[in-house]
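Pilot study result, target chain (113 residues):
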Amino acid sequence: MVNPRKLPKFKRWLSQTYMRLDESWRKARGSQSKIRRKEKSKFKMPNVGYGAPRHLRYVHPSGFREVLVHNLKELEKIDSSKQAVKIAHTVGRKKRIDILKRAEELKIKVLNP
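Predicted structure:
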């Protein structure tokens, strides 16, 4: 259920030439940059047009919308047919076990058990 369109690899210019350069994207800022000018055979530049359709944004690959949960009270507000729970990383082991038990009772999917 994620963006069905295939995206190009957005790679940093000259990252294939120099080992010290990371492949992660950096915006081309040079005045004569072929990428910034969007020349034909050069790397693609990320822009708004590559975004997912609005109804697919923030949707987990399982098809559920992710909701961050810190305690049991927040778990009660979840709609189990449309939403899945992700337990916050600040939650300790004892409270995490309580949340997992309650989620099982309410038949709520937990994305990071």
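One observation from the pilot: The chain has two domains: 1-52, 58-105. A full batch analysis is planned for the follow-on phase.
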